[in-house]
């Protein structure tokens, strides 16, 4: 596995790549940030398993913190940009049922003091973008949104790194382990998307 990944996972640049990918996928959800995190974590499992090249593979704690911090920073940038977006962004959100619906549900969730929607949306495809932009466009208070964003980023980072690391431990540091871990990440995303999009029950 390490040979296939080449010098990237054995270099500090892996953290830069992970940070940029996670930060930017709030604007470009097609970026494979989760796949990159899992691949790096699988490489870390190789060093742990062999004990021969620990200095050439990513550190899982550093990788987790890197991904989590980049996630929160990306959310904050999207939130602030949407906050300042003005009438043009408001009109764009009004034209999108997905964005306007998410904005309404997010507002209701934050008003009740809960932010499970923010955490779930972090796992759903493009959910992070919808929630961060929706919170900013609706001028939700930062103190109501950002703590949940931080918890969501940490939960996603821990889950993604754990998938790659323990998948590598249990299945071996092969492309099979990476593929199974990526499928598990996509499965969590599909489940989160279903819950987020499910109509709220009338009270």
Strand content: under 5%
Q: Determine the structural class based on helices, strands and strand pairing.
A: mainly alpha
Mean pLDDT: 77
How many individual β-strands? 0
In sequence order, what are the helices and strands, one letter per element?
A: HHHHHHHHHH
Low-confidence stretches: 1-6, 50-54
Question: So what's the overall shape?
Answer: elongated
Number of helices: 10
Q: Please give the largest β-sheet.
A: none
**Mind telling me the C-alpha Rg?**
18 Å
Query: How far apart, in Å, are the first and last alpha carbons?
Result: 52 Å
Features:
disordered N terminus, 203 residues, mainly alpha
What does this structure look like?
The chain is mainly α and 203 residues long. 76% of the residues lie in helices and 0% in strands. Helix 4 crosses helix 8. It is elongated and about 50 Å long. The relative contact order is 0.16.
């Amino acid at each position: 596995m390490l040979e296939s990944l080449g010098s990237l996972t054995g270099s500090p640049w892996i953290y830069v790549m992970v940070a940029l990918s996670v930060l930017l996928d709030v604007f470009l959800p097609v970026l494979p940030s989760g796949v990159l995190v899992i691949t790096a974590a699988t490489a870390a499992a190789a060093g742990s398993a062999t004990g021969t090249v620990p200095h050439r593979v990513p550190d899982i704690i550093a990788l987790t913190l890197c991904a989590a911090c980049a996630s929160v920073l990306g959310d904050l940038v999207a939130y602030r940009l949407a906050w300042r977006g003005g009438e043009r962004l408001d009109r764009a959100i009004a034209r999108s049922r997905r964005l306007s619906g998410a904005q309404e549900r997010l507002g209701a969730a934050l008003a009740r003091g809960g932010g499970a929607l923010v955490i779930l949306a972090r796992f759903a495809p493009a959910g992070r973008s919808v929630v961060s932009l929706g919170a900013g466009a609706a001028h939700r208070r930062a103190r109501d949104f950002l703590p949940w964003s931080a918890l969501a980023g940490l939960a996603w980072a821990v889950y993604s790194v754990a998938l790659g690391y323990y998948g590598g431990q249990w299945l071996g540091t092969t492309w099979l382990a990476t593929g199974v871990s990526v499928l598990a990440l996509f499965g969590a995303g599909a489940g989160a998307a279903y819950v987020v999009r499910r109509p709220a029950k009338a009270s």
